């Protein structure tokens, strides 16, 4: 982790996302998108970490990321997802959802489709609507699902002007994030510590399943699904705890891991190497969790420099052992055998790390200290 | 009125090293543009002057800010200070016609004090230096002596490198700018940043490094070389040409190299001259030898200062002898170089053009006449160099005064002059903080507020808080102001607009980490209030639980109960069913939770449990009396069940509750039609209840009697 590049960009970064590489191609990640928040004028920007020919041969700018293009965004960028190679979906604090088009020929961004007032509050006793921030968005071509502070779930299609499906009052509290479980099922997390699974095949406004932490109602801020084992889900909460859930069984998390000191804003399994997990937090830290059992340096668990530390699983449920054969390393509960190695990736604590994304050997994260960090050697 | 001095958005500060020129009135950040950022809501297009400045003991002329759109001939103005801004509006007193109400002033102007905060490039400076600042505060106090000093010097260098990076970017932007006015503006920023770095570097040498005689001069030489850097371009230019010796700037280059004490490079240049011109080869060799043999302090050797002085004296005499003997008489270039190396003031002043500025003159003069100058003697040479260099033609400028104050080791004067000259608090706040860590400022206390370090940090942080986005940086600065930081943070943090819940969570986290319970409560209350207004009762309840705000929880619970009464079903069950211990926050919330539990038990057909819960809600006085009728009505279906659910004892209790309720009713005066109808329904309800209770009592007595009998 020597090669981590920081660039100050004069805007607080709320989201960072790699552009997906075409399936089956050998390309590595080279373009990412960012969204800003809390500025007088917010922007969605595209950056490249690719080489710029001879420009960088003197070594001065090598590894630095360069701005490709950007476009104004009305309101804070609350969430950002690549719809496909050329399209980006942005969720706004004004309640609108925008599909941006990237034109690689002349390096510009334009608005492709916009759903204004996708999220709104209805005031008691009056017909007027107030916009509500859209807090999360997830895409699975051609569908886009958004959630918001109004507790509403919207299902859009890229080519439809109106929402295909809306679940009003899906949640009594704020929905913070959403992810696809298996099409057409989605999973949402809310501000009273619940995971809800929704099945779009079912009519009605009730979730098909509710999972929650016991009693404490600690808000959950982020969720990610294991890329291969669709029943394994990781969430991050307000207290910085990482929870691993098995949605097939029980209504409680399989394990709770003490992690950050403040809100965990994002959690991501590595898409192609899911024994690795990445989390970032309001406390300004960015962690790499390594649960692979075949790590060669397993015997010497402490890295030089003392930056990493070992955490044992605090399992609160032993039921997971039932399906030993298909168990992923995240669900195993034997504390003596399975350890997770945690490495802190940022050299020194800064302000909140709001977002991160991993793709192949590359990681990008953005902070409230207006810096974007990029590394291209995650596993070196 | 609060008295505020120093940066007020406008100040004069010329480019580094420029001599003379129109400087007065030039504003730092925006060229000729006035700094008033006005938000107009429509109004007359005249203008009026506003004077910002201190009322007494002026350190400089108060700056004038022009506010466009204010009618000076007719209207008067009023204003109010904010933390980083000032509000100005017109007032129109009309004494004669009091009856005629003049519509309120159509325009309110917001005048921002710290305009540099709004520069996109300077934002990088603020953000990057924030990290360094926080790191510096964490330097352990135990570190003493050399390691501590090394740490502090490292921190100082980090700050400088951030300034330089910013300067370079600003320079790039200035070059790329198409609009000449824009380009000028960026260029002026570059010169300000360059001046900042120059001052900081000198302060680093004198106050942080505290270089003793000997090394002091080496540091000063580096300082001059770093800031008079045109020579490198010239060097590349000359060496790159076909025949360097014939280059028009050849001698200029050699002279500059000698002036900067870069004798090795100068000697190489001379050897080129010697190679191509046999007539002067001898002279060049002699001068080259003089250059080579000039004694310099090499760090790492055990050579004492006295030894150095002796050797140097010797060398000096040798140079003198060559000059006397007329060794270089046939080459005016070489002769003048030799004179420079003798520290001849007249010869040095002849090179005024190449020296650029008086501090370069000072350092060159020290190099060739007092190489072992003591820190304490610096100010004497500095003053005389300044006088000689300016020669009475022009008066010293702000930058000159600041550098002079530094040479005099008058830290407070340096900070004061910088505060006046620079348009933002960044520089003075960070420099003062660093010097304070060097334990150089302890004795100085201000007659207002806390000490100087804290005062400057507070000003800087307040400026950050006035910015819509940089407020997060300000928090850490307040944290490290022991006396007034906390109060300031409390006042500022409450004024952050909470546009989204996520932003609110960030603000809450800041407050919770600092145990600012009052602010936590108020933020949660704001959010709860917003949620209620948006008809999001679940969210409202969550926020009031988080704030432990019993009164508000009661209010929200009442809303839930009212909705239930209207609709006959509960909303937001996912929350109410999972209240847990939070239910105890307020009686009404407990009632809400328990009442919902009753419904659940009833739904699960656990009638006996449901019945005793329902009764206990009334007998324990948790249920509000206004709700008793609803509860009793809920008891009706239980009373009508086939099996007996309420025991005789419980039925008596229920009856007592019903009688309590009905007997306590006030007698109405003039009943209207609606009330009559309501009363009618009520009476029927009571009658039905009485009947059901009586029947249940009968069944219960029989059942209990028969059970006991059997």
Automatic annotation (TrEMBL), chain A:
> At the top level of its lineage, which domain of life is listed?
Eukaryota
The answer to whether the entry has keyword Nucleus is yes
Q: Which UniProt keywords apply?
A: Nucleus, Repeat, WD repeat
Q: Which sections of the protein are WD repeats?
A: 213-255, 257-299
**Family annotation (Pfam families):** WD40
Q: Which cellular compartments is it found in?
A: Nucleus
Q: Entry's InterPro entries?
A: WD40/YVTN_repeat-like_dom_sf, WD40_repeat_CS, WD40_repeat_dom_sf, WD40_rpt
Mind telling me which PANTHER family this protein's record contains? NUCLEOPORIN NUP43
**The name this protein goes by in its record:** Nucleoporin Nup43
Its source organism is Equus przewalskii (Przewalski's horse)
TrEMBL record, chain B:
Q: Which domain of life is it from?
A: Eukaryota
Subcellular localization(s) per the UniProt record: Nucleus, Nuclear pore complex
Keywords on record? Membrane, mRNA transport, Nuclear pore complex, Nucleus, Protein transport, Translocation, Transport
Keyword Protein transport assigned: yes
Q: Where is the composition biased (Gly residues)?
A: 8-23
Q: Does the keyword Membrane apply?
A: yes
**Region span, Disordered:** 1-42
Q: Identify the main location.
A: nucleus
Any matching Pfam family? Nucleopor_Nup85
Q: How does it assemble?
A: Component of the nuclear pore complex (NPC).
Q: What does this protein do?
A: Functions as a component of the nuclear pore complex (NPC).
Return the similarity comment: Belongs to the nucleoporin Nup85 family.
Protein name, as recorded = Nuclear pore complex protein Nup85
